[in-house]
Amino acid sequence: MKKLSTLKTMLAAALLAVGVGNVWADEQPTPVYFNDFSSTDGLTVVGNGIFEDDADARFGKVFHNDPTLTKAIRTNYLQLPADVLSHSTETKEMTIGFWVNVKNAADYWFTPIFTAYGAAPANNANTWPMFVCQSRGLLQVNCAGWCNFTAAQNDKAENYEGTFWLDDKAWHYYTATLTATKAVVYVDGEVLNSWTVSGEGDGNVIAGLFSNGADLKYICLGGNQAWDWNDLDPAYAFDDFAVYDKALTAEQIKAVIADKLAVPADATFDFENNPQNWPVTTVVYGDEFDAAAVTTLTVSDVVLTSVQNAFYANVIYKNGDAAPAFRVFKGNDFKLTAPEGKAIVKVEVTMAAGQTFDFTADNGAIADGVWTGNAAEVTFSTTATRLIAKLAVTLADENDETIKPAKVDVEVTDIAAFNAIEDGKIAKLTLVNARVNGVKSGDYYVEDATGATVIKGVELTAATALNGYIIGTKATNNGIDYINDPAVAVEYQLSATDASTFEATATTLVGTVMSGSEAAAQANYGRLITLENVSISGSGQNKTLTDAEGKTLDIKARDYMSVLPADYVWPEKASKITGVVIYYMTGWFLMPISADAIVAAGTQRVAEFDFLNNNMDMSKKMMSLLVSSTLQRCQLVTISMLVRTNFKSFRVVRFASQLLRDKQSPR
């Protein structure tokens, strides 16, 4: 017998329990004794049992009884402190719970799993008072009254007897709960046996276990069978032995199990305690604030990247006596990236006191401050400034379902260079003052000073200028095609700050003038061009175009963008047509960008009034008369700018009208 040091009675009120997690939350009863075997105080190893580190890190140090498999009787077990069962005098309830793993045990059908007596065995036998829990799911109490928990007393009218629950050599949680009239044995939170007794008379008394529990001083985990029965001491491993002065419910038992089996976080960004000593600011602007701006933080190879979209950066901020917290400014993001070969599967966000969780993520699912998914990286966004106390990140090996960011094969700085790369390549295309020429069925025709392409998978507006960048796959017809397969997750982005939208501003669409033969070319796909002096024919949707010399052009016209009114009548001749060049089915087409972009043929006169250069001020009445007179004679009037100079007069900066002979008023 090897005697270990002094008694360890870990009363939760004194917080002496080792390795306690949220099992001891307010809704959970507090154990009157708990030992996870990280300390051996108060324990006595009888026989050849050892304390060892389990292969499963969640269990850590465990007690392994008879690891050499001697198959002895009443020889190998762990003796617990003498007062372990003495705490239920007032509550008259008790729960015993612990983890057990069969390990290398053999012949364990009749072995005891837990026993308690008034004294050590004498002459290789035990007597009463006694309390025994058998591996096969049965109980026996003989302490100021007795109960054998017979089949007749079982709530199902028969006793389950078996050790099959141990055979898989995995960890299982065994629990026995007792009241004066009820006893239940659970395995992994599920009922194995349940008995109801009267509580009075021979064979029906459990309550002596509470009133006289202190008489049970020789308490054994894993052996020391009752009476003189010749059943082996089991070579099991044990962990987290606990005694409660309450009868735990199935839900409470399952909470204990869930706490133990929860996958620990692989990386915790603990902003409150800041063990990494990251810069902390106590101000919200100025040099100290700027110096504390978070760019990247790394914990256990998990990288947090701060994304600044707004005016203020994200910082670790301490406000007065409050603990530090990660301050994510409204409009900003932060991104978590897993190490190579790993995927983020869970992120638990703990908000600072008084803070509301309202973050969104670019993939996965979020509920109650917990993100779950399977991604190499995940970006969190908020529309309100928030303070985060802690981020706990759980990883797993990446697999075929892992969402991965686009891998950029090539970076180009204009559309012409993009059009020249090989199809199928993932490119980062930077746009500078590019222009959205038109929209057709989710295809966005974009042009810069070097060429044109098609962007798909993102909503844009015609006649806007674009600045920023986009990541996507080079596709046929100079189109940039997005991959929506979550395993690839190509993303579109058009701002240097990783924002998920383009920086777009309104612009004027002006087409490049060219001939029909020039227009029908691959290099013009998506470009905005203008054809001049063409004849238009054809009764269907496809309109044949002929030049001034009667030659049929290699490009047709069609309202693919549906910009023309339903009752629109195409003119027989047009002085100009402005539209976007596409290739559809087997030919080239020009898609008009509006009805006004098709100008019917006719002799034009332009009346232009430029009062600004002549420094002419005119009254509101005079201006009204001039405009009214001109409108009577114009098909199209364009007023470039009106500037109000005071309450009584306006200045016409520039006024121009296009006068068509066949639209003039007879007056």
What does this structure look like?
With 667 residues, the chain is mostly beta strands. It folds into five domains: 31-261, Sandwich (Jelly Rolls); 267-397, Jelly Rolls (Sandwich); 410-506, OB fold (Dihydrolipoamide Acetyltransferase, E2P) (Beta Barrel); 512-600, OB fold (Dihydrolipoamide Acetyltransferase, E2P); 604-663. Helices cover 6% and strands 38% of the residues. The protein has an eight-stranded antiparallel sheet, with no helix packed on it. A hairpin with a 2-residue loop joins strand 25 (365-367) and strand 26. It starts with a strand and ends in a 7-residue tail after the last strand. Mean pLDDT is 83; it is low at 1-26, 477-501, 603-617 and 630-667.
Q: Report the sheet-strand fraction.
A: 35-45%
User: CA-to-CA gap between the ends?
Assistant: 125 Å
Anisotropy-based shape: elongated
* The level-1 CATH class of the largest domain: Mainly Beta
Name given to the CATH architecture of the largest domain: Sandwich
Output the radius of gyration. Answer: 41 Å
User: Sheet with the most strands?
Assistant: 8 strands, antiparallel
Structural class: mainly beta
Uncertain regions: pLDDT < 50 for 5+ in a row? 1-26, 477-501, 603-617, 630-667
Helix content: under 10%
Count of distinct structural domains: 5
Q: Count helical runs.
A: 6
> Taking all residues together, what is the mean pLDDT?
83
Q: In the CATH scheme, what's the topology name of the largest domain? A: Jelly Rolls
Strand arrangement, major sheet = 1-3-6-15-8-9-10-11
Number of strands: 46
